[in-house]
């Protein structure tokens, strides 16, 4: 019953990242702690965890007494989370240096948040799911309020914290009711008895509360009200991390519970999720049009993207799962890229964040403008970029699950979204102005964004690279 | 049986009463004290369910640590009374309140029918599960992994709290 | 004592907490209402645990307490850092970002 060496070895991505975090903490706390050393260590830790995940992608095992799953599905998500963390760390450095707020603790908290995300994706027990969500959230609350001297950062941290803790209450209530009716918190055992449980009203209530809690975490309508303000107020690299890694982690939990454990197709849960998905797509896209601040625009767009992905959950099928997995990889890349470039243009005092501040950007910085355009085209879901196939797969899954109306709403609202994504491209290329990046961008950060742009195009041209892998993951 | 009912109902009434008072007090210190009273009632209820270990650590952790922290912060910030509570009422809040009332009624009605499949209460079995010895054994065998995870969680919380609350903005 | 009584009680306490979160404007009292919600769920968990004769529920309560302690530390630190800059913990005065 104790933890064995082989358990630890099989969960290498998570263990290595935790150890890196602890070592980095020691380095940081030494007298005259070197922030650069912590930065390098954190990047190396993310890269190492990524390699371990890639390596264990083919083999799936359940370790630590049935508590977590490693390899396969969990490794896939670990790769998404570690890349998101890696990019966030790279982007944070110049951003925080400009604000004179660079501290090694920032990177350490990002690492611990990533460990929490990995726990969420690998949970085989509701207890682990709960602890993973909390570990991630606690780190994100601090990261949101990281720039202590800025009122916007404080305020968004308070808001995020109170609403996040409020959602935790619903999450726990849901877990309690599921536990009470199923008699266990082990997801494998729950999935075996799901057929009987799905007729129990108390169990359905528990599942409904879980839908509420997860919808809070993915920022889906009507539980989205925190997202625009928190995304706007948080430091931009942290916003990027929240909208990619944290969103992917919340979807990992969604998929684990509602597709892999529960067979929700045809149950009332599926209808509720479909309704939330439709509301998110409509409200997210329509409100995004009215925004002038780019961070807010991307916040509403991320609500809309949560809606697209929830269509896959509502479908509740293996196709839905594959679609969401691909979508998350694509979304993480394109959103990270977009926020990265925004963080370069943005000024310390939260200015240069509107559409108008990008007038004439293409003339001054043609390469950066081209990359930003790639991300915008991809977010809009225009082929041949990665975003297109993400939408294609989730809508296809919805159609196959007899949710044609949902797919129709998805396609129509995507058309609306083209307007505001391409508006930025139009401003950059066709309006006169002298928008540029005022501070020097480190070569490494520039290269990283370049790699992200290349990956967005690559995934768009060869989506099967990811899709084929995700089809091999076994079901519970 | 009658004794049990008396204990349960008095604790239940006291806990609901203290919760209502906590939510409606304007002065945060008084609200915090009512919350502590509520926690003592809950600890009593845990004892009626034979959960001794949980009852004890509930008092230790919540009343002894968390609420003391709350009181410290309230006093540190020297918070005054809130202005009239009725100012806070807005249509949006009424809708939200109505929705939560609907959820409550939903929950209560489900509890009537949804709990039929549960086994009968067996005090001996419950007593065996709730002891320190049994919980300790389970915690360090079956639940060792989540226990380790909490250590990382607490570490992250310590780092974050120090980072945000320390005086010197270095 | 049927389990329904415990479940009723905890649902009522939970909703008192929810109403507190919605209605109050003092960030610390909102946070205390959230603590009340978490505790009412703990009561549900302990009741289920005792009726099922299964330890998992109580174990989860143990972890919830740990999480609550961590959240209290973080939450109060965040509220303190807000207070340092704004001299208020009133949520209605959070104007830069509309509440």
Features of the shown structure:
heterotrimer; A: 476 residues; two-stranded antiparallel ribbon; 76% helix; B: mainly alpha; 7 helices; globular
Strand arrangement across the biggest beta sheet of chain A: 1-2
Number of helices of chain B: 7
CATH domain class of the domain at 1-88 in chain B: Mainly Alpha
Mean pLDDT of chain A: 92
Structural class, judged by helices and strands of chain B? mainly alpha
Give the total of domains of chain A.
1
The count of helical stretches of chain A stands at 21
Tell me, briefly, the overall form of chain B.
Answer: globular
Remind me, CATH topology of the domain at 1-88 in chain B? Four Helix Bundle (Hemerythrin (Met), subunit A)
CATH superfamily of the domain at 1-88 in chain B: NADH-ubiquinone/plastoquinone oxidoreductase chain 6, subunit NuoJ
Give the N-terminus to C-terminus distance of chain B in angstroms: 63 Å
Uncertain residue segments of chain B: none
Secondary-structure element pattern of chain A, one letter each: HHHEEHHHHHHHHHHHHHHHHHH
What proportion of the residues of chain A is helical, as a percent range?
Answer: over 70%
User: What is Rg of chain B?
Assistant: 21 Å
What is the percent of helical residues of chain B?
Answer: over 70%
Give the radius of gyration of chain A: 21 Å
Tell how many strands the DSSP assignment of chain A holds.
2
By oligomeric state, this entry counts as heterotrimer
Termini distance of chain A?
22 Å
Mean pLDDT figure of chain B: 87
């Amino acid at each position: 019953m104790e933890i064995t060496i082989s358990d630890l070895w099989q969960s290498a991505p998570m263990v290595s990242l935790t150890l890196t975090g602890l070592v980095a903490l020691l380095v940081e706390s030494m007298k005259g702690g070197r922030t650069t050393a912590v930065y390098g260590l954190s990047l190396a830790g993310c890269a190492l965890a990524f390699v371990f995940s890639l390596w264990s992608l083919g083999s799936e095992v359940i370790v630590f007494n049935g508590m977590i799953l490693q390899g396969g599905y969990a490794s896939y998500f670990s790769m998404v989370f570690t890349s998101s963390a890696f990019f966030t760390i790279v982007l944070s450095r110049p951003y925080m240096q400009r604000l004179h707020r660079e501290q090694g603790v920032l990177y350490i908290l990002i690492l611990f948040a990533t460990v929490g995300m990995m726990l969420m994706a690998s949970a085989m027990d509701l207890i682990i799911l709960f602890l993973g969500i909390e570990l991630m959230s606690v780190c994100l609350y601090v990261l949101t309020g990281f720039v202590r001297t800025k009122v916007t950062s404080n305020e968004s941290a308070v808001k995020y914290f109170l609403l996040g803790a409020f959602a935790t209450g619903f999450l726990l209530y849901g877990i309690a009711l599921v536990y009470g009716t199923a008699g266990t918190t082990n997801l494998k055992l729950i999935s075996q008895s799901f057929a009987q449980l799905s007729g129990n009203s108390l169990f359905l209530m528990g599942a409904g509360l879980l839908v509420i809690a997860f919808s809070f975490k993915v920022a889906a309508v009507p539980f989205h009200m925190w997202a625009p303000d928190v995304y706007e107020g948080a430091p931009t690299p942290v916003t990027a991390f929240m909208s990619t890694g944290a969103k992917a982690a919340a979807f990992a939990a969604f998929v684990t519970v509602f597709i892999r454990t529960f067979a929700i197709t045809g149950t009332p849960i599926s209808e509720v999720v479909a309704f939330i998905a439709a509301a998110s797509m409509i409200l997210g896209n329509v409100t995004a049009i009215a925004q002038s601040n780019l961070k807010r625009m991307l916040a509403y767009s991320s609500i809309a993207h949560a809606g697209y992905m929830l269509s896959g959950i509502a479908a509740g099928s293996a196709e839905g799962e594959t679609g969401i997995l691909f979508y998350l990889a694509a979304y993480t890349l394109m959103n990270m890229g977009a926020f990265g470039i925004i963080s370069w243009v943005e000024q310390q005092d939260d200015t240069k964040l509107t559409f108008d501040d990008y007038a004439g950007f293409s003339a001054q910085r043609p390469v950066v403008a081209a990359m930003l355009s790639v991300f915008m085209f991809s977010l809009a879901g225009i082929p041949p970029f990665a975003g297109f196939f993400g939408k294609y797969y989730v809508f296809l899954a919805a159609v196959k699950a007899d949710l044609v109306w949902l797919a129709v709403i998805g396609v129509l609202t995507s058309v609306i979204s083209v307007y505001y994504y391409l508006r930025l491209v139009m401003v950059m290329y066709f309006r006169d102005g002298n928008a540029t990046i005022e501070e020097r961008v480190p070569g490494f950060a520039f290269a990283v964004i370049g790699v992200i742009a290349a990956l967005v195009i690559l995934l768009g041209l060869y989506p099967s690279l990811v899709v084929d892998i995700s089809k091999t993951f076994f079901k519970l | 049986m009658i004794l049990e009912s008396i204990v349960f109902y008095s604790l239940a009434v006291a806990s609901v009463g203290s919760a209502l008072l906590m939510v409606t007090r304007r002065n945060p210190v008084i609200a915090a004290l009512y919350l502590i009273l509520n926690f003592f009632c809950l600890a009593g209820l845990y004892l009626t369910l034979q959960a001794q270990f949980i009852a004890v650590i509930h008092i230790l952790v919540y009343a002894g640590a968390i609420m003391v922290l709350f009181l410290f912060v309230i006093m540190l910030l020297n918070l005054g009374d809130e202005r009239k509570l009725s100012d806070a009422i807005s249509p949006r809040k009424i809708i939200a309140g109505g929705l939560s009332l609907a959820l409550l009624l939903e929950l209560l009605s489900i509890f009537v029918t949804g709990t039929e499949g549960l086994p009968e209460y067996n005090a001996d079995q419950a007593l065996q599960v709730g002891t320190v010895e049994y919980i300790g054994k389970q915690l360090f065998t079956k639940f060792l992994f989540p226990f380790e995870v909490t250590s990382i969680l607490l570490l992250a919380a310590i780092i974050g709290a120090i980072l945000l609350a320390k005086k010197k903005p270095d | 004592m049927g389990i329904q009584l415990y479940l009723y009680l905890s649902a009522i306490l939970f909703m008192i907490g929810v109403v507190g979160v919605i209605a109050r404007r003092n960030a610390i009292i909102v946070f205390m209402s959230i603590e009340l919600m978490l505790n009412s769920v703990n009561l549900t968990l302990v009741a289920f645990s005792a009726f099922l004769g299964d330890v998992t529920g109580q174990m989860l309560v143990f972890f919830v307490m740990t999480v609550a302690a961590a959240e209290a530390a973080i939450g109060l630190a965040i509220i303190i850092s807000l207070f340092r800059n704004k001299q208020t913990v009133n949520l209605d005065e959070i104007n830069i970002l509309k509440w």
